[in-house]
Input
Amino acid sequence: MRRLVAFGVLAVALAACGSPQQAADQSSLAVEPSSESAPAPPSSAPVTSAQVTATAAPASGRCTAAVLAAAVESTGAGAGNRYGKLVVTNNGAGPCTVNGYSGLQLLDSAGNPVPTDLRRTSDPGPAPVVLAPGTAAAANLHWTVVPTGDEPVDRPCQEEAVRAAAIPPDETEPMSLRWGLGPVCAGGKIEISAFYAA
Output
């Protein structure tokens, strides 16, 4: 018997990190019984088409800190600016989805917070990224090494972070990663984009 199935796409919402939620789509599909699989109705009975509602296919769950490995990579420098990427890789056994912005807190060697002022940028903005096992997503980072305000100019403007804690979208448990990209001036201001397929 021939079947037509409509799959819905589920976009995973970002609540912990403040991204707009997106709803799952469901669609309906009219299917007529095949003459090969069902006898013809009696001549006195009207012939009607069967209405079949296709349920949304189970989507991958959110990527959590338990299945993600995180790292930061330097991607460029110039005129006091620094650029990098926060890269997360799915180390789980099945697919998972990231959608939106990561949280990020710089830390010293003892795990204490180093000034961090995370600012979201809209290029690219939030969109669901499904990560198969072993695949990665990235978020762009930008910061300055030029002292601002009352920051010192004869030594590092801020304490240099040793590690960082990054929280996946819609989650509360952080991933731990090595920073190693130098001090972040302007009070620890870091611009971050939403995740996109790496």
